[in-house]
């Protein structure tokens, strides 16, 4: 057992640790960061092994076009398609950068207004040199490919991607309500009705991805944002991958690791159902079921599935969590059929068709005053100047990002 844990730790912890104080129990190395999320409230603990970066950025070429984002009040900044740039030398010139929404080791996320349609978007920018030096080229191309191929009410929408001589750009819908993590910390924990609502929307998003053989691999409150109406949007597809059978890369957030990830023997999309169990537990209890500041002890708890059960958790919730937090992925709830989760007594009385149609009232509705409101995000120090779009030197990396 110890050799299994040590092997996992060695593959994870050879990176230098972040100097920033975090709230997750195991430190994170910042990699592809959330397209819209504020780093100030995040526990920032996603990691990935540098020894086995994935090599198949699976092609998802046909973007679904049957989903129209719902109208919200204030009006959604993407209620109609973006006007494609026609008047500027570089697409970034069509955007007016307003402020920073988040930062990461590869770049930052800006709120920006499109000069052609006057709508607001979140633009994730990444320094190409940093991407290449940190060996994240395949992951960034993979993220772009997956986002380009998905369209769902509970997944963030990619508007367009492009590059200049020095940066890559993801233009995303601006999800104004901030992180579910922030709401959870404000309320300490959720009652079962609230947790059931968010879990149901996450389940439908994961069902959509799994039907397309996509494993998300980093479900956690920091990667779930709330839109202006209070419904979820899952963001940050940096660790998502098309997985038809098994994959081996150690990636995700340690508190949310499934046992099979730690064992490094290959894992399937079933890791997402384990993470769902951790998410529901954290919403109900206020902390993850597995915590320890020492990685080896944390992994030991996960492998042994040592879950502390509060006395006030309902029998239905406990039974659901025991099914999701099953160490054997073959026996884990959801592995054989998503209906096994949907039909569980914990969700009794909840109509998943109505959930998908966004007809269930959210527990919390963000207080948003306008389409450009950023009050749900922390403030960040702004760069002294923004130099995107300039043609200053030869670009040695352009060919490595052919779809941007």
TrEMBL record:
One of its GO terms (biological process) is anatomical structure morphogenesis. It catalyses: L-threonyl-[protein] + ATP = O-phospho-L-threonyl-[protein] + ADP + H(+); L-seryl-[protein] + ATP = O-phospho-L-seryl-[protein] + ADP + H(+). It is an enzyme of class 2 (transferase). The keyword Oxidoreductase does not apply. One of its GO terms (cellular component) is cytosol. InterPro entries: AGC-kinase_C, Kinase-like_dom_sf, Prot_kinase_dom, Ser/Thr_kinase_AS. SMART domains: S_TKc. Residues 348-404 form the AGC-kinase C-terminal domain. CDD domains: STKc_PKA_like (cd05580). Its EC number is 2.7.11.11. Keywords: ATP-binding, Kinase, Nucleotide-binding, Serine/threonine-protein kinase, Transferase. It holds the Pfam family Pkinase. One of its GO terms (molecular function) is ATP binding. Residues 61-82 are annotated as: Disordered. The keyword Acetylation does not apply. This is cAMP-dependent protein kinase.
